[in-house]
Design a protein that fits this description.
Blueprint (H helix, E strand, L loop, with lengths): L7 H14 L15 H8 L15 H8 L3 H15 L1 H11 L9 H14 L10 H18 L3 H12 L5 H18 L4 H9 L5 H17 L25 H18 L5 H9 L4 H18 L4 H9 L6 H17 L3 H9 L4 H16 L3
Amino acid sequence: MKIQSIGISLIYILLGVMIFQAFLFGKNHLPLFAGGTEFEKESAQSQEEPLNKWSIPPFDGEKFRYSSLASLEQVRLLKEWAKAYGYERARQFLRDVYSDEPADDHELIHVIGEAAFLKLGYGAFNICDSFFKFGCYHGVVLEAIRQSGYNQKLLEELADGCLSLPHSGTTTTACIHGIGHAIMVVRGYDLIPSYEDCDRMSLDKLASFYCYDGVSMENVVRRHEREGALDQLYSEDPYYPCNSVPQQYEAACVREHIFHVRNNFGWKDVDKSAEYCLYFTAEDTLRECFGAMGSAINQDFSSEPKRVIEECNKLVTYDPTYRTLCTSTAATHYSFAQQSQQAEMLCNSLPDRIDREGCFGAVEYARASLF
């Protein structure tokens, strides 16, 4: 099925949540309510020096020592510091230590959002930014649920908070995407009711998609999974659960599930990944799936931009548009990582002038969203 020619606006639709796909497959999974016994037990195993042996801001040597700690211990210390010194100083400490924003410690910036919510309420959304891939918004959402409980009023307040944000459209979509993650966790990984809660926020179609996408990604990464959570991911059927969800959720489901298929079914070969995408026939699902392939390929070969180009180019045999979607989305990942030369290399590899312009537009949009 041939997708209509894509322009700049179509590439922009790919951007909002692709920012999260490269880093949410981190190595450490924390429980949602990190103050509980599970978290305390793991933290107690650390043999590092207690809080009163540290200072904020720390000396350079201490900064290095902090970054070398296990992730759980870093989170524990940062929670203590945010409580003792305030979220502002704790956040500045993170900026000093992690100017390169490492991919595996997304939970650290959650701590800042959580602490800010305790002081500012929903005003905490306004202090969040693109640092650590917009993860502060996730922290605000999670703390709001802890404090207020999960109900319709809370969903509406969270949606209003996201939609009232300044800055770029990516800020709003990153925020709404975080709500989707939180919904899935609170719902115990029950997929369809989680999608339906996104609908209850009365968002427009595009904003709803980003909430669905957050739900779908949490179903795959399961970073806050707890005992008793439903398993609507693992199956001998590679197309499950996306082949069983209502049509309005299919594109968001497929967009995230392709990562699971590539990693757990051994379908990293471009032809096998394309086979997965082409199982579905809806145009929006195909667009999201082949764009997500670009994210996955960038994730696998981020240090080899020429290899990324080669992998995306293989899709020409199916449809040149699929190559453009793959290449342009991969290029935005380089832009979010502030690797402008690699992003330009990918865009310049596209033979069609209109496709190149669309790719460069997407790359610039991603770059401008960092603040």
